[in-house]
Design brief:
Chains A, B, C: This is Ammonium transporter AmtB-like domain-containing protein. Chains A, B, C: Belongs to the ammonium transporter (TC 2.A.49) family. Rh subfamily. The structure is a homotrimer of 463-residue chains. Chain A has 463 residues and is an all-alpha fold. Chain A has a single domain, classed as Ammonium transporter AmtB like domains (Ammonium transporter fold, Orthogonal Bundle), CATH 1.10.3430.10. Chain A has 17 helices and 4 strands. Chain A has a two-stranded parallel sheet with strand order 1-2. The first copy, chain A, is globular. In chain A, 64% of the residues are buried. Strand 4 of chain B pairs parallel with strand 3 of chain C.
Chain lengths: 463, 463, 463
């Protein structure tokens, strides 16, 4: 069905990229001292495997199991969801290490790798996998890889500006990871949009695929505290980030159940909300997980995020799709986009709610731009810092939208292998599928009982 | 179908509770010093994220993935199992932090939160989720929440008496968590029982839901050593708790396979035993995981627990249901109840099997009531301690049974939204379900092969 | 159907073995000092729970969830895959602790148990579970246990020779765990082979069982760095092992997608490759995960492993089955066998690529046989060490093949309960199965839509 050029396109592209990655790592990459043999190491280095590795592994589960299984809810797209998630993640991890490494290289392009780089590479993968959620089912494997190729450097450069130039605090990456990924994905969906992508018969779940999705959802939920705490500077900040995220998620989950039922005509829960909106509290507290000092502040953030997210799924996603032509398959706007913005604005509010004196000997670790020099002066005051946080939100929104939209247009080009209209949200063209694929994913029934007692060859006529 | 009052009941209840939680946390809750910024911290505080957090996260997986997926075995109740598990957990975590915090507050009601409180909140959630197992499929979401509301304070006050007044050792919570949850659940099932709940056509599993349940079962199995070790006082006690639990689980699992096959007419394994009884060894060693000094003692406990649990599923659960009207959906008596009692009685036995001198400088950390003052005297001797362990078992059994039974009667009141008789063990009334819900969950077949070659609209007549 | 003798065989065997294990642990087993109460402990002991436990738990997830779910891909063998995996693991853990403990006992047979022994027991379980993969669906539970009984001591004695006599470095066990398990399994399959095992109608997957398998695959993928790093000697070596494994897996996964598509006639991905070959990079870097100092070296190893593994599934597995009568159900030759050999040969290459001076104060921790005495002399030079690594590969290949083949012949004896020809790769004879078992696992369709509107008892004639 696909032309030979399109059929072999991915082989070529993956081959070229992997070769280029290898050469780049060979020429410019090396391990950091903490991962190399030495006889005298400082204590901090030595404890990295103890302090950081468990948090890294939790994040790793979120990327591969969490995102991967969360997207298996589509009835005919489970193979793609979990596999392409894996492919994009390993692509972005390598590409992200290169881009981030070279961008941060003190001189030249040499970059070093230690546990931190593996962790931040996982963060970079999260950006791309969030965008994948908006585009889920609409792209061929080639197009997904091309999307990741373009999105990664934009995301990392914007992150670099936010962290190094604007010196913002975004410990859980809600602005630079979640909001960026979401609005890139939405803009890409707009640029790439065709009416055949909307109201497609392959959209929707089956009973068991919704349960598969819950595997991803719950692992994301469980390990989100680790995601938000992993790069916090001090031990108490990490513990605070864990507790804030935990409490925000709890309050968010209660609210999700509440609102999910309240907005439904038949007062039934919607599994889309349970699997996604329960996580919004993790995003919304992400930017300030190391800042918030009062448990109930974290809970309020969670309540708001849960309510906004469910309302987003119920009203905003259909509106975006039908009125604005922005089809967001997984509703990433509701799980990552709006909660990411909430996180950003909360970071401004908390700058004024809390006060430097409440962070003895730590304020500058949270906000490096507000570090006091010996004479007590500092580069930024609270207002400047707040303005920077705001500018970061604006920059992320703008840069992700523009680059996402252009990427969407680019992916429309006929040079790329395109998914056939009838095969949106379906594995069949790209994966070998077992014999029950059609059956399992197309059943629509309301039966009391089916009982088939023995084998009878079913001729086509009789059926 | 449900009256508007009943339809909107959960919205109201969740809203009220979440608002009350927020206000209570705002007025009385704050973070503990270890989670707050400070410049001089003692070493123990600083290592909490390193020492405790991995064990906490393992426990967290058990609560949300473990309990949640273990209960997905019912063919038509997968959405509820995994979702209501999540709802009850986040409800109980917040409610439990409040109750436990206020009960332990040195003066007034102020309570503090750190990683320990998040961990013990997960333990409180376990109590309620075990009771949920006995009631699985019989309650509306509202009723589940009401059950958790009443059960949590009783469980935590009983725990407080056991730990602070009776000074018992129950490191893995087998008495105060597992036995309490199980017997509360059984008594609640008795109080709430109707004959329509027994022998219902919706009970039972499908091939794939049994596999979903194994996800929960195996994660519980894997992380049980962390559950039993998490609150042990010293590093060697934690390692011992891990090893004892690990060995008990291994011996228990071997025994489960053995007995499961032995008691079956056709000598086939029963997945209910594989998914549940294999875990009984974790419960049965829980109380004394930090006490047992000989590997084979832990293994003997595991062997006994596995055998008792399978025999419970095979003979005791049907007996309780048919003769005593106690319908125990998940068989929590066999996984948590009887193994919890075994753990309690084992704790008495091991008090006399081992001897103070075998625990140099540690006996008082395991049994604070037996701490020697400077003149060598101690509050309790072994016999008193044994009596206290016994009294704790009795108290837990009594308090859980009485409070559970009353809760069961209370849940029967028509003011609560009730599940319709034909919809016991089914998601349909409370969750939006995909088109294959009826089909997938009602197939009963014995076929050699089904082959449907192409689409033919099936008119009702022809079928 | 089975004779009473065969039906009760497993009960008897499990009973005897568990009793023997109990007696052996009682007579010879005790906890190591680090797990026993004491008032003065050295620092290294005290940090074991902090340093080693998270890596142990990751490995534990790999054994029980990873291997267990990876093997659920067969459409009618999910119960067996996940349950027998559990049974063999707990059998081997106990049996392995005994064998390894007695083999390493300084005098007599007394052995001690601490966290390390639990970890290495999990490694021993991995050997047997890999062999199980080759035999999957062909053995009765009794036969699996007998296989594990014979394989465990051979594997552990060969390991002992490799590590203590030949002093090889094989930090991730790619030679002594993966290659041994794979070639034992293949030889066993040869010895046990019958033509009815090949091209069986029960082989193959369904849509959802392939997704179940991905749960196992991804958890293996995520935690493989922990497996390869767990027993590395120093903190930097552990971090290096993590990073090398991580990068090798990433490059391997890219290559797997590339080659999977390239070799397919319709340019579609094969889920067998995605679930298995993506992991080959973890095996192939296993032996030298603590040795490799250049990131791109690890990536090259990953690329080679991924390519070899996919080509193995596509061409070598069918060849072995059809031409040589070696039926390898899970293709363990492609995931564990050949990548294990690659790991072995890579360990020889890296001995000459890197140089003693690059490992200050650490060379002897990686290669104890090359430790320098005070006068600068050493037992082995690089060539001897290389020869030893080569001899280890040869020994593992030979010992596993011979012992596996003999075990296969032994399992053929009619004294053991045998699987009926028509019930290969099927749960039905050994597990109670729910009503949809036949239906769910025998559907073959290509339909546009199935809609069944209401219940109609289907008489056999009408169907």
């Amino acid at each position: 069905m696909r032309s030979p050029l399109h059929q072999n396109q991915l082989t070529l592209i993956l081959g070229l990229f992997q070769a280029a990655f290898l050469v780049t790592f060979a020429l410019f990459g090396s391990y950091a001292p903490s991962a190399l043999p030495s006889n005298g190491k400082d204590v901090e280095e030595a404890t990295r495997m103890t302090n950081l590795y468990p948090l890294f592994q939790d994040t790793h589960v979120m990327i591969f199991i969490g995102f991967g299984f969360l997207m298996t809810f589509l009835k005919r797209y489970g193979f793609s969801a979990v596999s392409i998630n894996m492919l994009l993640a390993v692509f972005t991890i390598q590409w992200g290490i290169i881009v981030r490494g070279m961008a941060s290289a003190p001189h030249g392009f040499k970059f070093t790798i230690s546990l931190e780089q593996l962790l931040t590479a996982d963060f970079a993968a999260a950006v791309i996998l969030i965008s994948m959620g908006a585009m889920l089912g609409k792209l061929s494997p080639t197009q997904y890889v091309i999307m990741a190729f373009f999105e990664t450097p934009v995301a990392l450069i914007v992150e670099h500006i936010c962290v190094h130039n604007l010196q913002i605090n975004d410990v859980g990456g809600s602005i630079i990871v979640h909001a960026f990924g979401a609005y890139f994905g939405l803009a890409c969906a707009k640029g790439f949009g065709k009416k055949e992508q909307r109201g497609h018969q392959n959209e929707g779940s089956t009973y068991h695929t919704d349960i598969f999705a819950m595997i991803g959802a719950i692992f994301l939920w469980i390990y989100w505290p680790s995601f938000n705490a992993a790069v916090a500077a001090t031990d108490d900040a990490r513990q605070r980030a864990v507790a804030n995220t935990f409490l925000s998620l709890c309050a968010c989950t209660m609210t999700t159940f509440l609102v999910s039922q309240a907005v439904d005509k038949h007062k039934r829960f919607d599994m889309v909300h349970i699997a996604n909106s329960t996580l919004a509290g993790g995003v919304a507290i992400g930017t300030t997980a190391n800042v918030v000092l009062e448990p109930f502040h974290a809970m309020i953030v969670g309540v708001i995020a849960g309510a906004v997210s469910v309302i987003g799924y119920k009203y905003i996603t259909p509106f975006l799709s039908e009125k604005l032509g922005i089809h967001d398959t997984c509703g990433v706007n509701n799980l990552h986009g709006m909660p990411g913005l909430i996180a950003g604005f909360a970071s401004i509010a908390f700058l004024f709610i809390y006060d430097e004196s409440q962070y003895p000997a730590q304020y500058d670790k949270i906000y490096p731009g507000m570090a006091r020099s010996e004479d007590g002066k500092r580069m930024f005051d609270e207002k400047t810092q707040a303005l920077n946080q705001l500018m970061a939100i604006g920059l992320v929104f703008l840069a992700s939208s523009v680059s996402g939209y252009i990427t969407g247009l680019l992916l429309k080009l006929k040079i790329w292998d395109q998914v056939r209209d009838e095969e949106y949200y379906a594995d069949g063209d790209y994966f070998e599928t077992p014999g029950d694929y059609d059956f399992t994913s197309r059943i629509v029934t309301s039966v009391q009982k089916i009982e088939v007692a023995e084998y009878n060859p079913l001729s086509q006529k009789e059926v």
